[in-house]
Amino acid sequence: MATSSPSYSDDADGHPSTSGDAPAASSTSGGPRRPDDVEAVSPTPLDEETPGCSSQSKDGPEPGGDAGAAPASGAAIKTRGRVLTDAEDPSGESFPPSTVVRDIEADATLDDPHLYLNRELSTLDFNWRVLCQALDDRTPLMERVFFAAITDSNLDEFFRKRVGGLKRQQAAGVSATSPDGRSPEEQIEAVRAPAERLYRRMTGFWKNELVPLLARRADVHILDFEDLTSGQRRRADDHFQNNIFPILTPLAVGPGHPFPFLSNLSLSLAVTLRNPARNSDHFARVKVPSNRDRWVDLGDNHYVPLEQVIANNLGDLFRGMQIKTVHAFRVTRNADIRRDEEEADDLLEMISEELRERRFARVVRLELDGNMPDDVRELLVDELSIEAGDVYVSESLLGLGDAMQLMGIDRPDLKFEPWEPVTPPRLLREGNPTDLVRQGKTADYPNIFAAIREDDLLVHHPYESFQHSAQRFVEEAATDPQVLAIKQTLYRTSDNSPIVAALVDAAEKGKQVAVLVEVKARFDEANNIEWGRMLEESGVHVAYGLVGLKTHAKTTLVIRQEDDGPRTYCHIGTGNYNSTTARLYTDLGLLTCDRDIGYDVTHLFHYLTGYAPHQEYRELLVAPTNMRRKFEALIQREIDIEQSGGSGRIVAKMNALNDTGIIQELYRASQAGVDIDLIVRGHCRMRPGLEGFSENVRVISILGRFLEHTRIYYFENAGQPEVFMGSADWMSRNLNSRVEAIVPVRHPRLKGRIVEILDLALADHRSAWELHPDGRYVQRTPSNAEEEDSSLQDQLIRRAEERVEAAYRPA
C-alpha cells in the first residue's frame, strides 16, 4: 500500500508558435497587468471551540454572498496602491491566525520589530493552509487524506527543525532576538498555543470527519479494534502472530532496566502491568515496528491500525502478567544540529557523525493518546526531561503522516485527474527521420543540442516532462560522442536516479564528468553521501561542497565539440534534478547555449570545485557573490523610475520571504509608490498593506495539487521588463550562506510565458490566499464559474496541452 509523496514542506493567450514557446504577453508594458477592479476576501466567524477552515461547498458561495466583480482575464487582482478595509471585504475562508501583530508608530524606522511577522508563527499559518486543503470538500476525498497526512508530516519537520533550533539556542543561552524582536524563550512560548490549536484541529478532523467520510463516500473503513467483527479479529490476530509478534521487543522499566531510548518519530505503546504473584505494578514500552504497514488489511477495504492490533495481543508478550493499561505515544527529536564547519577536517566525516547525533538528539515534543492516565503521562514527561508545554494530546491516532499509505488504494475517481507531463513541442520533432516523415513531421532537430541551438528553450514542470527535457539533456550528453565534459550540481535526487546513471555512463565512456554533491541537504545527507561515493567509483570527479556554504544552485554544464570549436550548453533551473519530485513540484528550467551564460556557468563550477573564489559574472546572479547587490539595485531602479514620474512595478514568486534586508528595500519601494505583488507559498515576514509602509504591497499564497516551487522575479523597468528565474528565494540563507544561481530570461517569447505565469497566479480565485496587514491569511472565494475555474495549476495544464496541440496543427 506504500506510496511516495512530496514533502510539501514555494504563455500569453492564444496559440503558441511552432517552436513551442508562447508569444509575449499582451499587456502594454510586457508584464503582469494591473486591473481596474479590486477584490479581496475576509474570514467568516469561527467557532472558538473547534477552530479551523470551514468546508467550501462545491456549489460555490452561499446564496446572497457577494464576492465582488470578476477582474479581466489574466489581470492582476489589486488596484495600484489600494488595500481594502475589513468592512469592504466580502466573505471568504480563513483560520485562527498564529501570528499576533503589534501596533506600529507612524515614525517607526524600517528596522522596527513590529514591521516583521515571526517566522515560526508564519510557518504554522502555512501549515494551516495545507490543512485547509484537506478541510475543503472541493478537494477529492483521497486527496484530502493526502493533505491531512502532509500537514502532520510538516508539523513533524517544524518541531524537529524550528522548535528544535530554538531549544538549542535557549540551552546555549543565546540572547539575540529575531527580526520581530522575540528571544528564543519568547518564540518557544509563542508557538505553543497556536501549534496545539492546529494539532487539535488536524487530529479531530481525522477522527470526526475524514474517517466517516471515507466510509460513506469511498467504502474505505478505518476501524478501531473494538469495532471489529469476530472474523476480522481472527484475521488481525493471525497477522499479529505471523508477521508482528516475532519482531517485537518489549522493554521493561525498573531496577536493572533503565528507561529505553526512544528513536525519533517512533510510535510506541506505554504498557502498565501487574504481577499477580508479587502484587506489584510495572511499566514497559513496546515499539510499534516502522517497517510494517501501519494499516492492517482486513479485506474489502477494511483496515485497523497496527498499534491497536499489538495492544490487543499484548498478553502473548507479557505472559504471567495482567495488562492494566495500554496507550500510544510518540516522540519528536531535535534535528537542528549545527557545527563549526571551519574546524572540520573532513566534511563527509562531520555529516556522518551529525547523522548519528541527530538520532540521539533531545526530545522536543511528546504526543500522547488522550486517554493516557496522569501517572503514565508524568512518568514519560519525567523520563524524557521535557516540559509540560511540549506535550500534545491527540484526539485520534498518532503519526497521521502514515495515512499517506492509504493513497495506494485504487480509487482514481476520488483523486485528482491523472496528469501526464507533455513533451515540449520543439523536442517532439526529434527522432528517426523516416518515422517522423511517416507521421507528417520533419526532423528539424536531430538531437537536443540542435533544438537548443535554434533558440533558448523554457520548460515548466510538471506540465512539461522533466524526463524528456532536463533528464534527456544529461542522457544525450552522456552518449553523444561530440560531448567532451559534463558538470552538474546534485542537491537532491531520486532513488535509482536516471541522472546519476547517465553521469556514471558518461564517465565510463571517457568523458570528463564533475559533480558537486551537496552533503548538507537536510534529511538527504546519507543518500547524497552514497551517491557521491558511487559516482567516484565510476571515475566521476566529485566535490562535496564549500566549507561554510551549502550549494543549492540547480545547474548543468555540457561542453560539446562542434565545427566552430567547443560550445557550452547549460540547464539552469528552480528545482532539483529529481525525476520523482519533478512530477509533483512546479519548477522552471532554461536550456540555452548563450555564450555569456555558458561563460558564467563555467566560472561557477570553477568556483565550486577548485580554488577560484573571485569570479566575475556577465549574466548570472550568484549568491553569495553578487545576488543581493543585484536585487537591491533592481529594486532601487524601480524606486528611481517611480520618483521620476514613471510607474515602478515589482512582481516576485518564491517559496518563502524572510530576509530583512530585502524586506526593508521593498518597504522603501512601497513608500516611494512602487507597485509590488508577492506570491509567497510558505512563510512570509513582511506585512503588506500597512499605511505609510507597505500600502502598495500585496502578498498571496497559492496551494494546489502540485507544490509551488518556482522562483521568478519581475522588474518592469519603465516598459522594458527584466525577468529572472533560478534557485534562490528571498531568504537570508539563500542570499548569505548558500551558493545559488539565478539567470535572466532575455528571449521575448520565453519572457512572455513567465509573465503569463505571474498573471495567472495573481488572477487565481480558486487556490490563492491573501495575507492581510494583521497577519490573517484569507482564501479568495470564487463568485462565478469562471473564477472557480481560475486555478493557476489547472490553467497551466490547459496551456501545456494547447502548446502540444498547436505543434501538430497543420499550418
Major sheet attributes: 10 strands, mixed
Write down how many β-strands occur, each being a DSSP E stretch of 2 or more residues: 29
Outline: globular
| Helicity level | 25-40%
- Unreliable sequence segments: 2-6, 10-29, 35-51, 55-91, 336-351
Write structural notes for this entry.
The chain is of the alpha/beta class and 811 residues long. Helix content is 33%, strand content 19%. The chain is built from 20 helices and 29 strands. The strands form five sheets. Strands 16, 20, 21, 22, 23, 25, 26, 27, 28 and 29 form a ten-stranded mixed sheet that branches. Helix 13 links the parallel strand 14 (512-517) and strand 15.
Give a short overview.
The chain contains 20 helices and 29 strands. With 811 residues, the protein is an alpha/beta fold.
List the helices and strands and how they pair.
Blueprint: E1 42-43, E2 91-92, H1 119-135, H2 141-171, H3 184-218, E3 221-222, H4 230-244, E4 251-253, E5 267-275, E6 280-287, E7 295-299, E8 302-305, H5 306-311, E9 322-333, H6 347-359, E10 363-369, H7 374-384, E11 391-394, H8 425-428, H9 433-438, H10 448-454, E12 457-461, H11 470-479, E13 483-490, H12 498-508, E14 512-517, H13 525-537, E15 541-543, E16 550-551, E17 555-562, E18 565-573, E19 585-592, H14 595-609, E20 621-623, H15 627-643, E21 649-654, H16 660-671, E22 675-680, E23 697-702, E24 707-708, E25 712-715, E26 722-726, H17 732-736, E27 738-745, H18 748-762, E28 768-771, E29 777-779, H19 785-788, H20 792-808
Helix pairs in contact: 1-2, 1-3, 2-3, 11-12, 15-16
